[in-house]
């Protein structure tokens, strides 16, 4: 009797594993592609700002800061494109191996099927099948022979179906492989173009930096003066926070001036805010961080240290500030040197959106995640539209990059 064990189980396992790999790779590709588009848009936005600032004859410092941002974003884009190309290389290698395995399995199926067809042809007459049954020594043997004939017929049909299914799978894999190779070639070509742009920008950077080095002392004085202005703004914000905490606590009957007296609802909101650490949306729809949290060397004149209590985000002209989480507007104040600031309370957490030209909310308003709360101001001096975004827990400063998704 013919053994009915089929290589189909092994083949199904291979295809299942392949399917998992394809699914995971597809997810990775989609994430990388999304980030690549974001970087491309970011580079375009920075380049437009650079051209605008050059036309308006902005200071060399501003031009170098813009150029540094573009170079960094371009370097990030090259790295990310390389990751995409490497991922495709691995997928191409995996699919090539799977195609080889599938072809071997298909050949074996075809050989088995050919042998069955040949054997069936030799014993195809109805008479031989009847005689095969009539020559049985007992009814039980005849029954077993009849079952064998049915199994044989079903197995032959199963083999034919497997050949058809595997052929289709092989064709789909080949088509996918062609698409992957085309996509990889496109990424490689794009990377060549991006690298050329990078080298051009680096040469421009070197020319501008030579100018800055000649007058480094003068630029250092400008930066220190600007930092003094920033420090004054930060002190005003710290004062606003302390006064807001004291005011809220006085209304609830507490005398504390540094920490909020929380109701059960406020505690739940704060816990929810904490649970979303690292997942909060950006406070603008699109933008690039131009200065990060904490003490750091100036991005152009490295000999000068600067400090930032939050992050600065350059966005499009007319860009809107958005609440990063549900909360209540606790303060709306004018801040000298930084237009208007909106303070949103989330339990004992605070988010501050500073340098707003227009404000769409008032004290006591409830806001929801991604709700627009104001329009970011554009500086006449630099031509930049910059949001100063800060996060506090009570009166303690926190790094927004730890809270905002991919900041």
Task: Give an account of the 3D structure.
The protein has 407 residues and is of the alpha+beta class. The protein has 2 domains: 8-214, no CATH class; 227-402, Glucose Permease (Domain IIA). The protein is 60% helix and 16% strand. It is built from 6 helices and 12 strands. The protein has helices spanning 8-55, 60-122, 126-134, 139-214, 216-252, 264-275, and strands spanning 287-291, 294-297, 305-308, 311-315, 320-322, 327-334, 340-346, 349-359, 366-367, 372-376, 385-393, 396-398. The strands form 2 sheets. Strands 1, 4, 5, 6, 7, 8, 9, 10, 11 and 12 form a 10-stranded antiparallel beta sheet that branches. It has a two-stranded antiparallel ribbon with strand order 2-3. A hairpin with a 2-residue loop joins strand 11 (385-393) and strand 12 (396-398). The radius of gyration is 34 Å and the shape is elongated. The two termini are 68 Å apart. The model is unreliable at 1-7 (pLDDT under 50).
């Amino acid at each position: 009797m013919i053994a009915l064990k089929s290589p189909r189980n092994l083949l199904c396992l291979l295809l299942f594993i392949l399917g998992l790999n394809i699914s995971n790779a597809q997810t990775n590709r989609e994430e990388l592609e999304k980030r690549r588009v974001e970087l491309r848009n970011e580079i375009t936005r920075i380049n437009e700002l650079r051209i605008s600032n050059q036309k308006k004859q902005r200071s060399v410092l501003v031009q170098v800061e813009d150029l540094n941002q573009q170079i960094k974003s371009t370097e990030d884009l090259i790295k990310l494109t390389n990751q995409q190309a490497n991922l495709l290389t691995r997928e191409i290698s995996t699919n090539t191996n799977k195609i080889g395995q599938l072809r071997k399995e298909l050949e074996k199926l075809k050989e088995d099927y050919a042998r069955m067809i040949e054997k069936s042809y030799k014993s195809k007459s109805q008479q031989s099948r009847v005689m095969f049954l009539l020559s049985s020594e007992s009814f039980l043997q005849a029954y077993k022979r009849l079952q064998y004939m049915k199994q044989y017929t079903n197995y032959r049909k199963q083999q034919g179906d497997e050949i058809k299914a595997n052929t289709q799978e092989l064709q789909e894999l080949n088509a996918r492989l062609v698409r992957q190779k085309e996509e990889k070639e496109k990424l490689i070509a794009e990377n060549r173009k991006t690298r050329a742009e990078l080298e051009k920008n680096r040469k421009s950077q070197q020319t501008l930096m030579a100018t800055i080095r000649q007058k480094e002392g003068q630029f250092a004085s400008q930066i220190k003066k600007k930092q003094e202005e920033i420090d004054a703004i930060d002190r005003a914000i710290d004062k606003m926070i302390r006064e807001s905490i004291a005011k809220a606590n006085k209304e609830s009957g507490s005398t504390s001036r540094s920490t909020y007296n929380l109701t059960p609802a406020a505690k739940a909101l704060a816990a929810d805010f904490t649970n979303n650490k690292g997942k909060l949306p950006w406070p603008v729809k699109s933008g690039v961080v131009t200065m990060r949290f904490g003490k750091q060397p100036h991005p152009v004149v490295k000999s000068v240290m600067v400090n930032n209590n939050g992050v600065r985000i350059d966005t499009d002209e007319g860009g809107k500030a958005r609440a990063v989480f549900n909360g209540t507007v606790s303060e709306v104040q004018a801040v000298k040197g930084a237009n208007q600031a909106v303070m949103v309370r989330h339990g004992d957490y605070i988010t501050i959106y500073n340098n707003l030209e227009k404000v769409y909310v008032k004290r006591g308003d409830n806001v929801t995640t991604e709700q627009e709360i104001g329009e970011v101001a554009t500086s006449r001096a630099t031509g930049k539209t910059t949001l100063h975004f800060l996060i506090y827990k009570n009166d303690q400063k926190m790094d927004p990059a730890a809270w905002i998704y991919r900041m």
